[in-house]
């Protein structure tokens, strides 16, 4: 599971040329009359406004002091084409639901950034013919919502596609040029070494195009990480990669570096507690890093006792917490003081349920269709759709539904 230096006036409509096309910069029809400071956009946690049991943004703001949200994700239409949608299914052009969420946030003095890409789905960089058409699609999103910030979340499978990454980086550069003051983050996968081969190729593409965003952020989770020490080690190594790629000194590299974590239990069963977030926050602030965010606010609440903390959920963290505990670390990074709350209660132990009998073991060579059941890693799993050689539990949004221990 990464913007603003000037404000576009509420009534201003500015026509700009972009690679032979004309882009209309946001007239801010969604109601924002001014933008937040950069630090808030850099601290905005991810929120899925249409999926994963969306929480009430206003309630989060009241409880945590949060002002900025990173709305996810803009994708190409599932049926094909080069036009922006929410999640591949809801066209931006006809949207009112997300618009209402944004209006609510702005009415309370907050603002949003929008994230494009993410894990899975077809990205506009894959679907559009070139950087200019990709940028034109994203410009529709900026214009509709009056955005001051945007995040390019470049990960699997798109960042393995050289042409798609070239389109995305080229589009980011065009948007940066044509929307003065736009805060731009680029988020990619993290590894113990900082980032992997594809992440490094993305940085080289940015260098070749002469593009420098506000930050390059890594996601140090789902890669064999174990708590905060492994994450700060990855951030140190990523700093070295930024220095060697762009010729920056250490301080300049940190000023263009960001962290995007995952609160609670990750897709691969790693656990990141509030104490881990505090350690990484201390590292980020002491090194003057540009960004500190996490995936996601939909997960920033305690699971029900039935979940027993043993699975990764899109709607809860699988660790003991009060609602919006993790959001408060973003508030601290932005430089504000979160409201005080009572200590997190110790959860009542839940009896371990009697395991079910295990189904036939999953096989990487077998083909499974919707409804087929297998066992893997002492859990039973049911296929949601056709699949082959996709490990059960490898991704929260993958083809397998966890049916519990066996």
Structural descriptors:
406 residues, alpha/beta, three-stranded antiparallel beta sheet, 19 strands, 20% strand, globular, disordered N terminus
Structure in words:
This protein has 406 residues and is an alpha/beta fold. Helices cover 30% and strands 20% of the residues. Strands 3, 4, 5, 6, 7, 8, 9, 10, 11 and 14 form a 10-stranded mixed β-sheet that branches. Strands 16-17-19 form a 3-stranded antiparallel β-sheet, with no helix packed on it. A two-stranded antiparallel ribbon has the order 1-2. It is globular, with a radius of gyration of 21 Å. 48% of the residues are buried. The model is unreliable at 1-33 and 342-355 (pLDDT under 50).
- Please state the CA-atom Rg, rounded to the nearest Å: 21 Å
| Termini Cα gap | 28 Å
Give the low-confidence spans: 1-33, 342-355
Question: Which percent bin holds the helix content?
Answer: 25-40%
Question: How much β-strand is present in the residues?
Answer: 15-25%
Q: What is the number of helices?
A: 11
Largest sheet: 10 strands, mixed
What is the residue-averaged pLDDT? 87
Brief synopsis:
With 406 residues, the protein is an alpha/beta fold. The chain has helices at 38-43, 57-64, 97-107, 124-127, 131-145, 162-178, 197-209, 228-246, 250-255, 274-286, 327-334, and strands at 14-18, 21-25, 46-47, 68-75, 85-86, 90-91, 111-117, 149-153, 183-189, 215-219, 257-262, 264-265, 271-272, 291-295, 367-368, 373-376, 379-383, 387-388, 400-405.
């Amino acid at each position: 599971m990464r913007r603003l230096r000037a404000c576009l006036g509420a009534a201003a409509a500015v026509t700009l040329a972009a690679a032979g096309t004309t882009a209309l910069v946001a007239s801010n029809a969604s109601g924002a009359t001014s933008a937040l400071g950069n630090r808030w956009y850099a601290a905005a946690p991810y929120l899925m406004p249409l999926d994963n049991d969306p929480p009430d943004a206003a309630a989060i703001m009241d409880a945590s002091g949060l002002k900025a949200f990173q709305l996810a994700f803009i994708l190409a239409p599932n049926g094909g084409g080069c036009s922006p949608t929410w999640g591949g299914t809801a066209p931006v052009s006809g949207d009112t639901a997300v618009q209402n969420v944004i209006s609510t946030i702005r009415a309370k003095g907050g603002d949003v950034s929008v994230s494009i890409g993410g894990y899975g789905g077809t990205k506009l960089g894959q679907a559009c013919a070139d950087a200019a058409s990709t940028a034109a699609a994203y410009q529709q999103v900026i214009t509709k919502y009056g955005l001051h910030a945007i995040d390019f979340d470049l990960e699997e499978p798109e960042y393995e596609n050289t042409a798609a990454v070239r389109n995305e980086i080229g589009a980011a550069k065009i948007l940066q040029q044509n929307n003065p003051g736009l805060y731009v983050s680029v988020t990619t996968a993290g590894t113990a070494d900082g980032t992997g081969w594809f992440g490094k190729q993305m940085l080289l593409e940015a260098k070749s195009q002469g593009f420098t965003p506000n930050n390059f952020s890594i996601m140090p989770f789902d890669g064999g990480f174990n708590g905060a020490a492994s994450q700060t080690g990855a951030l140190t190594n990523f700093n070295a990669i930024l220095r060697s790629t762009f010729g920056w000194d250490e301080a300049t590299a940190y000023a263009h570096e960001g962290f995007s974590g995952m609160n609670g239990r990750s897709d691969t069963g790693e656990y990141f507690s509030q104490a881990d977030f505090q350690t990484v926050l201390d590292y980020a602030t002491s090194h003057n890093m540009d960004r500190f965010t996490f995936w996601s606010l939909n997960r920033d609440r305690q699971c029900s006792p039935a979940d027993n903390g043993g699975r990764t959920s899109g709607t809860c963290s699988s660790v003991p917490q009060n609602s919006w505990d993790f959001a408060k670390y973003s508030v601290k990074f932005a430089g504000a003081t979160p409201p005080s709350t009572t200590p997190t209660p110790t959860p009542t132990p839940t009896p371990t349920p009697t395991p079910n009998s295990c189904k036939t073991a999953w096989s990487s060579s077998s083909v499974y269709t919707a409804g087929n059941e297998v066992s893997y890693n002492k859990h039973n799993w049911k296929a949601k759709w056709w699949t082959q050689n996709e490990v059960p539990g490898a991704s929260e949004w993958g083809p397998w539904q966890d049916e519990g221990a066996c």
